Amino acid sequence: MPTLRRGSRGNEVRELQKLLLKWGYNPGPIDGIFGARTEQAVLQFQRDHGLAADGIVGPLTWGALQSQQPGYQMYTIQAGDTFYKIALRFQISLSSLLAANLGIDPNQLQIGQQIRIPLPGPGPEPGLTRVVTGWLPYWVQSLAFQSVQNHPEIFRSISPFWYVMTPSGEVLNLPNAEDSTLLSYTTSRGIKVFPLITNSFDSDLISTVLNNPLLRQRHVQNIVNKLLQMNYPGIDINYENLYVRDRELFVVFVQELKAALSALGKLLIVSVHAKTDSTGAWSGSEAHDYAGIGQAADVVRVMGYDFHWQGSGPGSIAPADWVDAVLAYAVSTIPRNKIELGVPVYGYDWPQDQTATSVTYATAVARANQYNVPIISDTLLGPHYTYINASGVHHEVWFVDALYFGTLLDLVNKYDLRGICIWHLGAEDPRIYETIRAKF
């Protein structure tokens, strides 16, 4: 391999970046450009392996990088860290963590210090029995990311809203896309990032691409290019509100994308509208062919919420009997080990005869306290209450708390699904994480 240094470009740099990432060092995007972040990763690798720390990748550094598969990843000590907390976070034994860091005094850890985290060996992974992941909307990304940082041991992966498709098949960045802090954090903790691509709920937009084979192939290739550039393990396709006439073409697109991703070892996740039969309650749900999508995709996320929505009358966002019926239909058409239930953690506040506004758990509880009204607890429908504001307008509020969240997790267990995806992180009752531990 050629000697590489800052400013180098090409496939050899891309290979270098992949090796650094495999060893647990974050070189930034896998883009074939030897920039400052790649140089810092090289320097740290060299220091950790007793090499001359010059940032230049010559024969000795290449040899170390290409030696046997690393048995550990690197982790940078943060404020408040202890070996005990780190062992819990990465679901490893304290003794294995100490053994991997001989010579380091666990009572004298320094912020910024790097330690080794043993990688899990063969066999079943400890911890939760089901996958827990979550969506991070770009408009509240900082808040949603905080939920991940507060509970890194819970999340197997996350899906930030980072991309949007165009009528020409391009993949454009949304605000806050490719956030380096988020990527560095998740890499250090073994949390996979499956970014989401949206069609902005635009029926015409996705229809234009689906009905033109050249645009469809261009879109597939642009998705592939993005995954290669950023070294993502896969993608979440969130194309909603399709025309019913595009039902079969959407399956063709999913099949074509899956073929392209499989060749690269990447995973394909597809999010679908909830329904209790093949037709569903509206055109968007009918346009999602569960059987066709479920056969092609690696994971199908069934969005089990908005039974009552902003434009409807007030009521439960995800009634337990409806979610039960949704899952009964889903497992009849999709392998259950591919299904993740999209679980709500938000709420709606409906002014009388008006469109609702979305509220977080904290806002819903604070509003009840503000108007001094009791919250009615309901394990099958979710908590709710009514109030009259200062203008005399009657309001009805429905939301999700940890108790009702647990009811939905019981249904996931009942149907033995792969796991859940939370919509959306940052809006939740903080007690749901204890519920997840108890149920999963």
UniProtKB/TrEMBL annotation:
It comes from the Bacteria. It holds the Pfam family PG_binding_1. GO terms for molecular function: chitin binding; hydrolase activity, acting on glycosyl bonds. Keywords: Glycosidase, Hydrolase. Residues 73-117 form the LysM domain. GO terms for biological process: carbohydrate metabolic process. The keyword Acyltransferase does not apply. Residues 126-440 form the GH18 domain. The keyword Hydrolase applies. The lineage of its organism: Bacteria, Bacillati, Bacillota, Clostridia, Eubacteriales. This is Putative glycosyl hydrolase. InterPro entries: Chitinase_II/V-like_cat, Chitinase_insertion_sf, GH, Glyco_hydro18_cat, LysM, LysM_dom_sf, Peptidoglycan-bd-like, PGBD-like_sf.
